[in-house]
């Protein structure tokens, strides 16, 4: 059976300075970085010895991880393990990309977020194209801040049509989207409707904690990033006993990394091999 695991270690810093973000330009101490590196190394050891099943991995750091060499090397090394079918990451795509040449391209996935206040559009697009030209599965997207919709539309025009561009509805915005804005958003992201409103999930069957779980730097397992209960630890011999069928205890779920595990939404079928990096085209392109 294939398991998907989301890894989020203690790293919580970023080289970008998005105004709304607590990790913007935050810097860690040497000791904090060492702890992050050690946690990641233990996670990799775990995956290396768990050869009895297939795995998909998505790195979902607080902040930006690919500016750290140990995450780049982790992706390279994991991509070369036969039982690792996908190793993907959420990233702002600002870090060097040369390391990608040493990876198995058919195993990589990138969930690349565009931050128009931090990077020029053409620079971002050229970095996306470098990955795309290698045949790497990726998605590109941005938060649908009403004042930035023209920029997101311009990004859509600048990208190859085959690349999926997602838009996340801005949460907590002061007003509803207008009809015209909704038309534009849906023309940019044909799946925007799935993200527009939170899903009411209390009591719903969700595959997190069963075929997908999250891990922190200490190896603690949680079913997802949105339910805080620790259900086990990957460094315990019996870690897999924690996995079983579960219902969602939360009232709502509004992020792809969560609701994509709701069987009722059918997103596993829709996204196929691109589920972790949010690329619905991965299946049809055979990636
Ligand atoms: S790129 Fe992401 S993590 Fe970095 S400052 Fe912007 S929102 Fe925060
Ligand atoms: S529906 Fe969302 S919040 Fe609920 S368990 Fe699943 S991923 Fe977590």
Give Rg in angstroms. Answer: 18 Å
Distance between the termini: 20 Å
The major beta sheet can be summarized as: 9 strands, mixed
CATH class: Alpha Beta
| Count of domain modules | 1
Which CATH-level-2 architecture? Alpha-Beta Barrel
In what order do the strands lie side by side in the largest sheet?
A: 8-7-6-5-3-1-11-12-13
Beta fraction of the residues?
A: 15-25%
Query: Considering DSSP H and I runs of 4 or more, what fraction of the residues is helical?
Result: 25-40%
Overall number of strands? 15
- Helical stretch tally: 8
Outline: globular
H and E string: EEHEEHEEHEHEHHEEEEEEEHH
Q: What compounds are bound to the protein?
A: iron/sulfur cluster
How is this structure best described in words?
It contains eight helices and 15 strands. The protein has 287 residues and is of the alpha/beta class. The protein has one domain (2-274): TIM Barrel, CATH 3.20.20. A nine-stranded mixed beta sheet has the order 8-7-6-5-3-1-11-12-13. A two-stranded parallel sheet has the order 2-4. The longest helix has 20 residues, at 30-49. The protein is globular and about 55 Å long. The relative contact order is 0.14. The model has no long low-confidence stretch (mean pLDDT 95). Bound molecules: iron/sulfur cluster (SF4) (2 copies).
